[in-house]
Amino acid sequence: MKHQKIVVIGGGASGLLAAIIAKRGHANVTILERNPKLGKKILATGNGRCNYTNQFTKAEHYNHPAFVEHALDVFGAKKTIQFFEKLGISPRIEDLGKAYPMSEQASSIVDVLVYETEQLGIEVLCNAKVVHVKKQQNQFFSTLSDGQIIKSDKVILATGGKAMPGSGSDGNGYQIAESFGHHITQLFPSLVKLKLNSPYLKSMDGVKIQGTVQLLDQNQVVQTEKGDVLFTSYGISGPTILQISRKANEMLAEHLEVKIKVILLDQMTKEDIERRFQMMQDKPLEVSLIGLVHKKIIPSMIKEAGIHNPAIRFSLLTPKEKGKLASLMLDWRFTVVDSKGYEDAQVTAGGVDVSEINPLSMESRLVPGLYMTGEILDIDGLCGGYNLQWAWSSAYLAGKHASI
Ligand SMILES: Cc1cc2nc3c(=O)[nH]c(=O)nc-3n(C[C@H](O)[C@H](O)[C@H](O)COP(=O)(O)OP(=O)(O)OC[C@H]3O[C@@H](n4cnc5c(N)ncnc54)[C@H](O)[C@@H]3O)c2cc1C
């Protein structure tokens, strides 16, 4: 049996797992990582706790469900939890199926992966940035920035996307893929905070509410998310916003007008609000809203309703003004102008066109022996452990098939 010589470019989430699987499959494996250490981005995941999978992962949590299906069938959440349990990670399952290491430290995931690579005798070259890869007579030649050339039978390209470029994943891997004739679909940041155009951002900065947000395309609701919403000096953030950011950025890229409807009081009806107004008739307007909406929102809401005197007695408001106040509580619209970009994004939407990749093995359909894993591919998932799960699932297939 021939022992394949495999070069894994990128020692992040998918590169590490692919290397381990390939080495267990008796391949001769070398990881080339541009950073001084392996797994830098993993340390930042899950707010430093690493939400490494989601118990309820399904193909529909991703942008190309048909493409990811096989990888998830072969190495889905259950297998991932078992894989990491064997390495020492006891799972701690939290709300909505999110899995974290019991230690609540993302560094635990890196530590056990690195320990396993050492145990298996995987060769690791750090400070090794690959600048070029070519294939000649069934051999790959990976050139490092210092001119060194590493020869291999197979290459697994695990260089990540463009999100958080300081982690080493700055999108340079797309050029390597393109040099082999692969196409890159439109790229945009996902799971990212959004910038709004609103005169009230300064005064509402820091307000956190439990509400509902809806993404609108020409007044039609295209996505609804319920939960924490955080107003900031540049716009809006929180888990609800991260979830709608993919679609919002996709619409921005298409130059569509992007509006967000915020339902501040999603547990109240218009009638509930009107009943409350009735009880507050004698109070000054600005006082009458205390206890109903966040205090920092009140001045902005009064201005947005077109009322110039915040101290006016509530009973003196016109029916139109009262109606406007009530409607802002249930439907306040904001215009999205941009996102915080790749620096702030958790994941890149878009990547290597998946029609050029075999979903059963992650091998390129254009270049036999070239495999791709993780975020470099045009695959992204929702927030909640799905993106790392994709890194592990795709890496498992690539590591297994490359070693054959
Ligand atoms: C702040 C933050 C929080 C996140 N939290 C979560 C979470 O809790 N749960 C979740 O599921 N997902 C999370 N993600 C997303 C997840 O981390 C990524 O989807 C995942 O790491 C992608 O794995 P990857 O192997 O494709 O790329 P990466 O993990 O980015 O690894 C790519 C590696 O390749 C190296 N590299 C790049 N180019 C070269 C080159 N030319 N030569 C050599 N090396 C190179 C890079 O230095 C890097 O180490 C988060 C992302 C961010 C930014």
Can you put this structure into words, describing what you see?
The chain has about 400 residues and is of the alpha+beta class. It folds into 2 domains: about 240 residues, FAD/NAD(P)-binding domain (3-Layer(bba) Sandwich), CATH 3.50.50.60; about 150 residues, Helicase, Ruva Protein, domain 3 (Orthogonal Bundle). Helix content is about 30%, strand content about 25%. It is built from 13 helices and 19 strands. The strands form 5 sheets. The chain has a 6-stranded antiparallel barrel with strand order 12-15-14-13-16-17. α1 packs parallel to α5, α1 packs parallel to α13 and α3 crosses α13. The chain is elongated. The protein starts with a strand and ends with a helix. The site of flavin-adenine dinucleotide has 40 residues, from α1, α2, α6 and α13. The site of flavin-adenine dinucleotide (FAD) has 40 residues, from α1, α2, α6 and α13.
| CATH topology (fold) name of the largest domain | FAD/NAD(P)-binding domain
Cofactors, ions, other ligands: flavin-adenine dinucleotide
Backbone CA Rg: 25 Å
CATH arch. level architecture of the largest domain: 3-Layer(bba) Sandwich
Large-scale geometry = elongated
Sheet bearing the most strands, described? 6 strands, antiparallel, barrel
- The count of helical stretches stands at 13
Q: What's the average pLDDT?
A: 97
SSE class = alpha+beta
Strand content is 15-25%
Strand order of the largest sheet: 12-15-14-13-16-17
